From TrEMBL:
Chain ranges of the YozE SAM-like domain: 4-69
Protein species of origin: Lacticaseibacillus saniviri JCM 17471 = DSM 24301
NCBIfam families reported for this sequence: PRK13672.1
Domain of life: Bacteria
SUPFAM superfamilies recorded: YozE-like
Family membership noted in the UniProt record: Belongs to the UPF0346 family.
Gene3D superfamilies named among the record's database cross-references: YozE SAM-like
One family name in Pfam for this protein: YozE_SAM_like
Identification of the protein by name: UPF0346 protein IV56_GL001398
Length: 79
């Protein structure tokens, strides 16, 4: 079964690492409104544009989403 973007993002959490994607994951964990079951780029992007004040730039989301797609293709997931 395909994992949601949030499920992927949670694999990137690490309190001892400080790169932008890891910080995004750490902060998204505390965002109780994050669309946890969503995998669609547009839906996630729209949510983060209005609610992702913890993102320094939407480029961080783009980077994380591209890594998510790459991980899904390695696992045989559908896009």
């Amino acid at each position: 079964m395909k994992q949601s973007f949030y499920q992927y993002l949670m694999t990137q959490r690490n309190p001892n690492q400080h790169d932008e994607v890891t910080q995004f994951a750490n902060n998204a964990f505390f965002d109780h409104s994050f669309p946890k079951q969503e995998s669609d780029f547009e839906q996630l992007s729209n949510y983060l544009e209005f609610n992702g004040n913890y993102l320094p730039s939407m480029t961080v989301f783009d980077t994380a989403y591209n890594a998510y797609l790459a991980s899904e293709s390695k696992m045989g997931g559908e896009h």
